[in-house]
Amino acid sequence: MVVTLIFFVWPASQALYQSLLRQDVFGFKTEFVWFDNFTRLFADDQYLQALKVTLTFSLGTTLLSMSVALLFAVLVNRLIRSRDVYTTFLVWPYAVAPAIAGILWWFIFNPTLGILPYALDMLGYQWNHRANGNHAMLLVIIAAAWKQISYNFLFFLAGLQSIPQSLIEAAAIDGAKPFKRFWTIVFPLLSPVTFFLLVVNVVYAMFDTFGVIHATTEGGPAQATNILVYKVFRDGFIGMNLGSSAAQSVILMAIVVLLTVIQFRYIERKVNY
């Protein structure tokens, strides 16, 4: 409780209070402006664009990381002797810091030095995430998803191992093909794990991907990857617009809380425990 009060409740309350203020760069002059910071944000085209970018980025990161992790978990779960070895290798990327993950994929996709742009160029496709916003978005989605695949993989593998094999064997005896067995038996029994990971991945994409964005694209080109959490940093620490930055952080927190409530209230009803 003490840790929660110090590191969450107190900073959140300070952000909420500061979002109602207009301050100069050094904090010598403060003016109470009520909700002017919020009204200015929703009238700002750049902020609305950041909302759209965040939605695209969060959706892409969540779907990619969860789908690839589920595929790896299914493949590893079929192994008997080398299961622990593959599990160890697949878990290692989770220990990599977000900034390091971003730099790693920045080198891989570098238009001058990267191996993937070189391979794409041989196929007649020009890759340049510095000038093409779609390329930049794809880069940050891949980098952020790669960082989260290990976490999702562990939970999916644990969920698969908890499913009774007798159910799958009975379906196989009845003539159900592997895909039908997975879709009608395995996946519904994984719904609690899937629901939990859905909530975690949405929060991760909203909050914990600042390092990936900062190390790869810095929100560019032309604000194509300027997600909300990175815009809070740019406006607050670079633009020194503290009131607007605080208002953006409050809105971001409210969006995440709203999405979590919607997931628990509506999506959880389809979860089979």
UniProtKB/TrEMBL annotation:
One Gene Ontology CC term in the entry: plasma membrane
GO BP term (any one): transmembrane transport
Keyword Ion transport among record annotations: no
All copies of domain ABC transmembrane type-1, residue ranges: 51-263
Annotated TM spans: 55-77, 89-108, 136-160, 181-207, 246-267
Source organism superkingdom: Bacteria
Its membrane topology: Multi-pass membrane protein
Pfam families registered for this protein in UniProt: BPD_transp_1
Main location: membrane
Keywords of the record: Cell inner membrane, Cell membrane, Membrane, Transmembrane, Transmembrane helix, Transport
InterPro entries with a match to the protein in the record: MetI-like, MetI-like_sf, UgpAE/MalFG_permease
Subcellular compartments: Cell inner membrane; Cell membrane
CDD domains noted in UniProt: TM_PBP2
Quaternary state and interactors: The complex is composed of two ATP-binding proteins (UgpC), two transmembrane proteins (UgpA and UgpE) and a solute-binding protein (UgpB).
Family of the protein in this entry: Belongs to the binding-protein-dependent transport system permease family. UgpAE subfamily.
The name this protein goes by in its record: sn-glycerol-3-phosphate transport system permease protein UgpA
Source organism (scientific name): Nitrincola nitratireducens
Lineage, uppermost ranks: Bacteria, Pseudomonadati, Pseudomonadota, Gammaproteobacteria, Oceanospirillales
